[in-house]
Amino acid sequence: MQVRDENSGVDPLHASDAAPGAHYPQDDPALAEDHAAGTRSLADDLEALVEDARIYLDAELSYQKTRAGFVADRLKKTIAFGAVAAFLAVLALIGLTVGLIIALTPIITAWGATAVVVLGILLIAYLLVRKAGQAWNSMMGAMKEQQDAANNG
Questions:
Q1: Using CA atoms, how far apart are residues 39 and 152, in angstroms rounded to an integer?
Q2: Of 93, 92, 98, 94, which is closest to residue 113 (Cα–Cα)?
Q3: 12 and 3 in contact (C-beta within 8 Å)?
Q4: Residue 151 and residue 153: Cα distance in Å, rounded?
Q5: Per UniProt, which keywords does this protein have (predicted)?
Q6: N or C end of the chain: smaller count of CB under 10 Å?
Q7: pLDDT of res. 146
Q8: Residue 76 pLDDT more than 90?
């Protein structure tokens, strides 16, 4: 004969709808994942860390390769367009030089016009070379300062 629990109104030996043992935390399937995380070893964590680092490295290398390809493509286009622009600028300067010589010939003869135009172009070239030299010296001075600071600091 079965005895009823007077406080709960349920027969203690009576089968209920709940699965046997479900009221124990170690048997709860929802807690099984947390329990497994608590018993992971340091080696498992390190292995997962190494795997994550490898995946990150692969992704970063792939990104940098794509980026380098993009930069190389843009650099090729920049050089091509720059070369064509420089060629056209040289042609324009040749045309200007010839035009100046032709325009000055009636005033100061052909040889005089040629001399004035050539000397004018050489003067402009000299001024540009001096500016380039100043910029170079400024850059080298800054590099020397950085090198001295690195050696002394």
A1: 53
A2: 98
A3: yes
A4: 6
A5: Membrane, Transmembrane, Transmembrane helix
A6: N
A7: 77
A8: yes
Provide the b/e sequence for 10-20 (b: ≥16 CB within 10 Å): eeeeeeeeeee
d(CA 113, CA 120): 11
Residues 13 and 2 sit within 8 Å (Cβ to Cβ)? yes
Who's near 10: CB < 8 A, 6+ residues apart? 4, 16
Q: Which tokens hold the place of 120?
A: 């004018």
**pTM above the 0.70 mark?**
no
Query: Residue 109 and residue 103: Cα distance in Å, rounded?
Result: 10
Report which residue type is found at 74: R
Average pLDDT over residues 8-15: 54
Q: Tokens 């850059």 sit at which residue?
A: 139
Per the CB < 8 A criterion, the answer to whether 27 and 21 are in contact is yes
Per-residue tokens: 87: 């060629």
- Residue appearing with tokens 């007077």: 6
Return the H-helix or E-strand segment holding 115. helix 42-152
35, 26 Cβ separation under 8 angstroms: yes
